[in-house]
Amino acid sequence: MHAKTGSHGFASHTITLGMDMLINDKSITESEIVAYSWGRVGVPIIFVSGDDHLQHDLEVMPWIEFVVTKKATSASTVELRPVDAVHAEMREKAAHAVRTISKAKIMTLSTPMRAGLHAVPPASLAALKGIPGITYADETVTFTAADFRAAYDGVIALVGAARASYSQVLQETVRKHPDGQKIMADYSDALFVRWMDYESGRWKPPATPPRTAKTFHGDR
Length: 220
Prior knowledge:
The chain is of the alpha+beta class. The protein contains 6 helices and 8 strands.
């Protein structure tokens, strides 16, 4: 998930299509997410690489040394730069970023803050409309967070909700299959059986893995 397009991921999470993380009504990039995360413990972000669109998005962080690795020509296509040239520029700019680290800004946010997630197809947040404690409008959900960690955790929870609509694409794909009608009927039966198995004590949901000590940039 570009925290702004669809080509990057929230911190250590997997790629998520069509979602933007919002802080105080502003869409932010993955690089900004990392910067605010490390900013909680006084660490600045000094070097980033990515496509030319990301470089433009990071004009809000003018001290960063940036290397363009590719030129985005559409949502699904890029023009790659020569690998050797990119690696050489990375070494040069990374070294320069370290030498000039004193000019870098530590990214922080005032608290509390408004956080949120905006979704576009195939993701959707429409199912959350009307739930107390959040604000929903035009495929965007916002909420008040005590700090950036709470904002991040809340957005990740919203990502899970937005991804639920992916199943619509799955169903459309299955129905086009020669055995699609039977597969969907088997799926419907499986849902009913799962409910009966749970009610009868024959099935239990798998345990949620405990959160590790290091799940978020800047955690100690």
